[in-house]
Amino acid sequence: MSNTVAVIGAGPAGLVAAEVLSAAGKRVVVYERMPSVGRKFLMAGRGGLNLTHSEPLDQFVKRYGAATERMRPLLGAFTPADLIAWANGLGQETFIGSSGRVFPKAMKASPLLRAWLTRLAAQGVEIRTRLRWLGWDESGALKFQHDDGHTESLTPAATILALGGASWPRLGSDGGWAEILRARDVSLTPFQPANVGCNVVWSDHFRERFAGEPLKNIAIRFGDTSVRGEAIVTTYGLEGGALYALSASLREHAGPARIHIDLRPTHTHADLTAKLLHTRSGESLSNTLRKSIGLTPVAINLLREANGGALANDPTQLAAFIKAAPITLTAPRGLARAISTAGGVAWESVTPDLELKAAPGVYAAGEMLDWEAPTGGYLLQGCFATGVCAARAVLWRASGLEALVPR
Ligand SMILES: Cc1cc2nc3c(=O)[nH]c(=O)nc-3n(C[C@H](O)[C@H](O)[C@H](O)COP(=O)(O)OP(=O)(O)OC[C@H]3O[C@@H](n4cnc5c(N)ncnc54)[C@H](O)[C@@H]3O)c2cc1C
Fold first, then answer.
1. Which site among 127, 141, 211, 227 is 20 to 30 Å from 360 CA-CA?
2. Can you tell me the distance from the alpha carbon of 212 to that of 397, in angstroms, rounded to the nearest whole number?
3. How distant is the alpha carbon of residue 330 from its chain centre?
4. Residues 186 and 216 grouped into a single domain
5. Are 32 and 172 spatial neighbours (Cβ–Cβ below 8 Å)?
6. Residue 46 sits in which domain range?
7. Does residue 102 share a domain with residue 46?
């Protein structure tokens, strides 16, 4: 057996695990099937890399829904403050945006990833790309396949799997590992899209004129849940944080789903009605909506979409539409276009410190575990925290101690 720790998957969860292990003097080899590392991390930086969130930890952990109790000690061991300190240590200062989200000042992921890879190289981490993990061979060794088809094996001292979810498969994480783990009796929760946009049948005019326009400071209600945030009109429907936060309930709803968009959540229906009743003579309704109510052109035209093409004339009725414009989502977009994946390695399959019960010495970290969270920095924080904890568990066990997080 080699004294190497194998980390498989070079996304944030795998790279941070490699960092923790190598900092403690372990020899680490990271295996990655793609030609380069951190592709989804780089993609995450395209629209502004939302690293974590500044809300209090008690509130923060609740964002992980059904996985909250399993994630709590892991997030407690590597907190948002730790992640911010880590980014600062790589020369990437952060700032807190208006919504409490934390971003690097550079906004992009590339400077952070560059500095990170330099640190990993200095700590002796070997990164081997274009090697796809195929599972274990008959002797129990890890088996990898090169692009040209030939294979090689390794029996490491410990293994950390950080293979990602199954969304955006072209970036590397294709969920192909699920079959390998299922064959090893690891129980898995089916993959489902999380933080995903939805299709809407817009009129040609609305689609052509407003695709790409944001609907800011809105609230979206579905059933009993209402979420403040923003959405973006797209050619096929809607994307954006407020909608993503409803992913889990929308997923469970069979068939088209009716949402209601509150375009002025800070105003009451009575306020809006009063403003609409005081339309200046000669002013068009669109102008009143823009000037007195503060609606953008995309919001005004969304009201038309919601009402069969025309604005309601009656002020009370129009105010009701502003507070709850009904829009029908025909279907969520598929897993391949989702920001993240729900489902994966079931919690009952892993110990509290993330060792696979069916495969001692093998740990799982990152998005491949069965947790989901809204956008807002919770995804990366979850990946970093689980990566750090899996690595610490390997170190802890190697030093002969029982378990880091009590089992
Ligand atoms: C468009 C977009 C924007 C996002 N923005 C944000 C954001 O702003 N904030 C946020 O918190 N999160 C964001 N996310 C989510 C975040 O990027 C992911 O949650 C995170 O990258 C998951 O990290 P991971 O290390 O678990 O997996 P990944 O980053 O998916 O890495 C897994 C790695 O494993 C490799 N791999 C898979 N199978 C094998 C195999 N068999 N053999 C070898 N290697 C393999 C893959 O190629 C991949 O490199 C965004 C995601 C997307 C798609």
1. 127
2. 51
3. 23
4. no
5. yes
6. 5-193+340-398
7. yes
Same domain, 276 and 299: yes
Per-residue pLDDT of the chain (407 residues; tens, 9 = 90+): 679 999 999 999 999 999 999 999 999 999 999 999 999 999 998 989 999 999 999 999 999 999 999 999 999 999 999 999 999 999 999 999 978 999 999 999 999 999 999 999 999 999 999 999 999 999 999 999 999 999 999 999 999 999 999 999 999 999 999 999 999 999 999 999 999 999 999 999 999 999 999 999 999 999 999 999 999 999 999 999 999 999 988 988 888 999 999 999 999 999 999 999 987 777 888 999 999 999 999 999 999 999 999 998 899 999 999 999 999 999 999 999 999 999 999 999 999 999 999 999 999 999 999 999 999 999 999 999 999 999 999 999 888 655 555 55
Evaluate whether 48 touches 161 at the Cβ level (below 8 Å): no
Residue type for position 398: A
Same domain, 92 and 183: yes
**What residues does ligand 1 touch, defined as CB less than 6 Å away?**
8-14, 31-34, 39-41, 43-44, 49-50, 132-133, 162-164, 167-168, 172-173, 176-177, 339-340, 366-367, 377, 379-380, 383
Together in a domain, 115 and 188: yes
* Residue in the block written with tokens 């990164």: 127
Q: Domain check: are 152 and 10 in the same one?
A: yes
Domain identity same for 243 and 383: no
**Cα(23) to centroid(ligand 1), Å:** 23
Six-digit token string for 273: 């009605």
Is residue 166 within 8 Å of residue 341, measured between CB atoms? yes
Mutate to test the pocket of ligand 1, among 163, 170, 184, 191 (most ligand atoms within 8 A of CB): 163
Long-range contacts, stretch 289-294, CB < 8 angstroms, 24+ apart: 289/322, 293/264, 293/267, 293/322, 294/264
Same domain membership, residue 392 and residue 284: no
pTM of the model: 0.94
Nearest to 90 by CA among 118, 51, 116, 117: 116
Read off the tokens for 217: 């400071």
